[in-house]
Write a structure and sequence with these properties.
single chain, alpha+beta, Jelly Rolls, Arc Repressor Mutant, subunit A, 2 domains, 5-stranded antiparallel sheet, 9 strands, elongated
């Protein structure tokens, strides 16, 4: 028996004459249309979704989906619980990027040629499809209106820094692709989190170093290189200043505590 899951990714297929109407959708779903024609409407005229189109159907939204003389097929990802705010609200459509097209093609390949662990693989790709679609939607909104809440930009700064912890990138380099000046981003970040991006990056790198010391057998030098510190000596000095003990002493203490 298949166990119930909060995430379900797979093929999407509807025949001519299909219709779905909801006033309050009860979960999140992203649909990539690879063939055929799907109609979508919230208010006003219908939007035609052809090959390479995506429907982002957010929880609590209202919309209509239907097919007329032709059905459609594609891939989808449904998420039923623990939804972040980005997956709740108004539904919308967008055109897929090359990356989203490639991801959808990989999902179809996995569906057509399943592997023993195919369900987990498909679930992971489905989540990637969902989040990349949401990110593209946010990016489109940002390009139309650059001025958003400070909280949005502060959270974007944090995500960019976190994604570059295992590099030697400075905060300015990590934030270079965000459509706002580094000074403005730093101000939004300081207002929300109470520290500068540079201070946060150092704290996050030390936190990651703690985890590597506890979970792995990497040397302090290897960890310093992995996390982009200028040298092992520089890493050890900063680690001791923040953690209170040298890196290897932290490892010994953490493992002794775990074995008690």
């Amino acid at each position: 028996m298949r166990h119930q899951t909060a995430i379900l990714a797979g093929r999407k297929l509807q025949p001519p004459g299909y219709r779905f109407v909801t006033g309050q959708y009860d979960h999140f779903q992203v649909i990539y249309v690879s063939r055929g024609l799907l109609f979508f409407r919230v208010d006003g005229p219908a939007v035609q979704l052809r090959e390479g189109s995506i429907a982002i159907l957010r929880k609590a939204s209202r919309f209509e989906l239907w097919c007329e003389r032709a059905g459609y097929r594609g891939v989808c990802c449904n998420i039923y619980s623990d939804l972040p705010q980005e997956m709740i609200g108004q539904s919308e459509t967008l055109n897929a990027t090359a990356e989203l097209r490639a991801l959808a093609a990989l999902m179809e390949l996995q569906i057509n040629s399943p592997t023993p662990q195919g369900g987990l693989v498909l679930e992971g790709m489905g989540m990637a499809l969902a989040w990349e679609s949401v990110r593209l939607s946010q990016q489109r909104d940002a390009s139309l209106k650059l001025v958003r809440s400070g909280q949005h930009w502060a959270q974007a700064v944090r995500a960019a820094i976190d994604a570059n912890l295992h590099t030697a990138s400075t905060p300015r380099q990590a934030l270079a692709n965000l459509p706002m000046s580094y000074r403005q981003l730093s101000r939004h970040f300081l207002n929300l989190y109470g520290v500068t991006p540079k201070q946060y990056q150092l704290s996050a790198r030390i936190d990651e170093a703690r985890g590597l010391l506890e979970r792995s057998n990497l040397s302090a030098t290897d960890i310093a290189i992995e996390l982009g510190f200028a040298s092992s000596q520089h890493f050890a000095t900063l680690f001791r200043r923040i953690a209170g003990v040298p890196p290897l002493a932290w490892r010994v203490r953490a493992r002794q505590a775990a074995n008690r």
